Structure prediction request, 254 residues.
Amino acid sequence: MIPLEEKLHCLKPVSLSEIDNLKLLNRVDKKYLLTETEFVQLSERLAQMGYNVLTINSSILQAYETTYYDTPNLQFYLDHHNKRLNRVKIRIRKYNTTGDIFLEIKKRVNKGGETQKKRILLEEYNIGGDKQNRFITKNSGLLGSQLQPVAKTNFERATLTSEQFMERITIDSNLTVIVQDSSFSFKDLIILEVKRAKDSGNNGISNYLKEKHIHPISFSKYCLAVAMLHPTIKHNAFKPLLQKLKINFHGNTA
Prediction:
């Protein structure tokens, strides 16, 4: 088990209400894949730089369940695979610690790689209602009836914040990806995502990662699930990522 809690427990705990001003729904994202050794070194630097860690019910690890929706021809996946600058992801995410369920739409727009995220709180885990359909149409131009569930992911997340650097960092581990009846669980993969306001500069943890020659990588849990487990889908663009994961990280197929 990756020692996330053990290595991050020294950070100052903060509540959901305290980090509300750092939602960063319009932001620039960078993702990194870390080994356990790299994460241990990173955690020491995060403590030195004064990052805070979100704590709910005395726990810094929050379990997430996510279902990704796409068109029957997997247009969202193919847009990402083909590196379209403007692309969309639609998902339902359950935050197991709080029980909250959100319908979320993420847009990648051709404005310096900016990510825009919209979401609404749901009472049930589905996209079949009028409220969901209006939200989907408004933010994607599609109808809910044009979408179908394609992939699921389960993982645990620690969330760190820094008002000084206007950054929000998520650290994901124990990832399982599921497509139809196939699944794959990563034992020792750590996914680090640095989310910062577009005009905040680049003087937070990204500088440390650059010093350590840890470079950002294009990574999507949804696309990883489909590329790994869909039997016929085009995935040439993701072969370097899949090879990197095969060499550096272990897992189990179910």
